[in-house]
Amino acid sequence: MSILAEPSVLQKKAEIFLERDVYPLLKNFPVSEKFSLSQEIKQSCFKLIRAAVMANNLTVVKKRLEWLDEADAEKTLLLVLFGIAKTQKYITQKKLFELQGKLNEIGRIIGGLQKFFINNGQQPKK
Question: Taking the model in full, what pTM does it have?
Answer without folding.
Answer: 0.89
